[in-house]
Amino acid sequence: MARRPVYELRRGLLTVRIWRKRTRSGIRHTVSVTRLFRDGDTWKQSARFGPDDIPLLRLLLDEAHTWIFRHPQ
Fold first, then answer.
1. Is the pTM value of this prediction over 0.90?
2. How would you class 59 by CB atoms within 10 Å of its CB: exposed for 0-12, middle for 13-18, buried for 19 or more?
C-alpha cells in the first residue's frame, strides 16, 4: 500500500503535501511541493516554479508550517 500524505494544501496548480515519518527520535514531518502543468493532453507534475508562483508558494508553505506545529503527533 502506498503511503499517503497526512495533509495536503492546494491552490491553483500548486500543491503542498505534508508527510509524517516515525524515527528513532520521534515523529518527523517533511513537505513536498509540486506544480501541475500540461504536456499536450497529459497532466504532469514538476518541482520547478516560475517567479509568479513564489507569492502563492510562500503562503502555502506558511500554512504547512502552521499545520505541522499544531499537529505534532
1. no
2. middle
How far is 33 from 18, CA to CA, in rounded Å?
Answer: 9
Position 46: which residue type? Answer: S
Q: How far is CA 28 from CA 16, 31, 43, 64, in A?
A: 16, 10, 31, 14
* Total Cβ atoms within 10 A of residue 6: 15
Q: Give the list of residues 6+ apart from residue 70 with CB closer than 8 angstroms, or none.
A: none
Q: Could you identify the residue written with the cell 513564489? A: 54
Q: Say how far apart CA 11 and CA 59 lie, in whole Å.
A: 10
What pLDDT is stored for residue 58 in this prediction? 97
Contact 20, 29 (CB under 8 A): yes
Mean pLDDT (the chain) is 94
